[in-house]
Amino acid sequence: MNEILLSSEVIVYLLSEAVLYLLLFIAAIATLGILKGWNFDRFTKRQFDLENRSYLVMSIIFFVLGLKMLLLPYFAYTIDALSLLVPGAMCAAGVIDANDYGSPLLLLKIIILFLSGLWLGINRLDLEEKHYPYMKLKSWFYLLLFVLLSVEMVLDILYFSHIETTNPVSCCSVIFGEIGGNSLPFGLDIPKLLILFYLLYALLVLMLFTGHYLVRIAASLFFAMIAYYSVVYFFGTYIYELPTHRCPFCMLQAEYHYVGYLLWGVLFSGTFLAIESAVMEGIFGRDALKLKKISIGLLTLFVLLCSSYVGLYYLKNGVLL
Amino acid sequence: MIKQFIGSAALLMLVTGMAVGHYLSADKRSHREAFSGVVAVTGIVSPSLSTAFYEPAFLGEKVEHPASPQMQSLNRMEFVYAE
Amino acid sequence: MLSRSPFLYFLTLLLFKQKSKHLGIMSISVVMIALVSAVLFISSSLQKTLQDTLDEQADFTVTRIEAGRPVSTPLAWVDKIIEIEGVSEVAPRIHGRYFYAPGEESFLVVGIDFFDEQGSKALQSLLKGIDLKQFFAEESMIVGEGVKDFLQKHYYKDTFSFKTPRGEFKKVKIDEVLPGSLNLLANDMIIMPIGLAREIFGLKEDEVTDITFNVPNDAEWDNVIGKLHLVDYEIRVVEKREVEKAYENLYNYKGGIFLILYIIALLTLMLILYQRYAMVYSHERKEIGILRAVGWSIRDILKLKFYETLILVISSFVIGTVAAYGYVFVLGAPVLIEIFLGGANLENQVQLIPEVSFGTLGSLFLLYAVPFFAAVLIPSWRVAVIPPKEAMR
Fold first, then answer.
1. How many inter-chain contacts (B to C, CB under 8 Å) are there?
2. Are C185 and B28 a contacting pair at CB < 8 A?
3. What ipTM does the predicted assembly reach?
4. Do residue C49 and residue B35 have CB atoms under 8 angstroms apart?
């Protein structure tokens, strides 16, 4: 038992995750039952029960996923709060790297949110039809999600119980700075990165109106990645107004008006909706105009928000960093 | 019933608004300056713990239980502020 | 427009026509939220206040240790410490607890060097209108509010007689009283000239309690610690960093242990909620059956139940936190504050500075809302899927 586990944010976080996991577990068992006995053409009491049970699964997943969306920012907030306890950490970046479980956990959380958003989309399609055509598909999909969620739960516990409060960790300027030898991928430099960033944005917006679904998915993922690097290595320095400060986490703090939550949230949901629209149109043959509109709106907001920091800095100081 | 609902929602908003108003109107700065002033004069930052004479009264001071150093005594301030 | 929505109408109808069903649960929830919020509010306020004063605190404090116990520190160390490079503002201090035997109580006596320019300036800005000349005309002191109340109760109106270790009595005039808003730091404090304090504690001319100093360049800190240990073998160094961490832990330990115990209460609440709503909803079978029969789908019923729960959760959360806010920051958290400040010595009536962060509120909401919803989810599903025909039978 160390100080980390006694911090109230960690307790609240782990308790919430555990309660939600309990519900997910119930849902997983119910799903197994559904998969075993589902046959829509039968008129037995068993089939009727299973249909009812699917409502339980649905409402549990609905509820849990809604909360998971809140818990991801809360997780970021928690590790940010822990940075005061872990020696050497100035923000969440150091705490995430405090042991080997941190970064996979964060990545897994994002993947889970993506997949569960897709699950909700399929579920909506399923409910629109009379015969529950995607019941088998979404049940299997949920079981896959449940495996990931179990891994997440285990990682959660491992991560928080293995943060050392005696060993100093590196600060974000070491992890992302030039000292760490951590540089941009594909041999890019800052101007090329920026060109790529705006080009990919344009490409993604164009792709939203064409039928090349695979290209659209690839473009979204690639854009998300390049956007991440651009924010860390270029736009972030304008948020912090310091050319050497490169960190994806510090902007979550109050000094920067919590803009990180907005920035990453907008990027995440914009990319997600673009991918979801591709899946809806490509695999299920549905019209996803609304999704596309919201997606474009969010992505544009993201690009404008990033660019405005640079623009405002230039207007205020007359120079670029 | 809807009237009652709106009425109680308005009541909740009102109490929240009162709390927020109190929070925003609280004069935190002069308090903070006064506290900093005391520390500047005395150099003592620990809160004024109301402890018995033989108990450590400053935060961060380590004094173990003489009879059983491993055991945590419940009725002393070290239990509250221990590391 | 709102009143046209049959959904909203039915929702409010459910809530207000059957108040008694929810009242019990509401009141338990409000009490539980108010309790946990009060504890978190107190600790975050204390923590914030203390951390704000950290800037004023010296980077290092050194004392002499003899056989593991702190003893009086030789004044000669001051010269040795000044010689270390990078050190500034070296100041010897005299402070300690004075035990007042008849009342079994003790005060914190702090000796101040009034001839030190910085110290007297800080004092003048703290107590506006203090006349330092008059202060020195006779032996006088400045006391905290708790000390003043205590002395008044024991009939020391204007002066107090200290008993020195030599057995002499030292009469000291009560010159000023520190304002009550400073009680958090200065309730049991007595500030007096350093010479007077030395006499009261029976220290020799070349002895002080401890020595503080700053090292402006924090890259030098570890280096300085190494050099300090060369000054004397019996030296103990307390760093500001340690104190800082102690403040951070102040919040965690108390809040943490409390929260772990609180989880047990929370799980009990979940169980009560589960059983209670299973019962309540089974009484509602007929209504739900009628709704289903007039064309509401299972999803509509689930939605109804969800909003019903949401309204309960939000209103009890608001009532609970606002009540806790008033209790802590308006009333000063009577009784509960004693857990944080103790009650073994002088009575301390503190005024806590309001400090509520989004993070605290978010934690409180998650802590309460997640178990609440989780407990109600299965009972509401159970009642929603009852076939209408069966329900009305």
1. 187
2. no
3. 0.85
4. yes
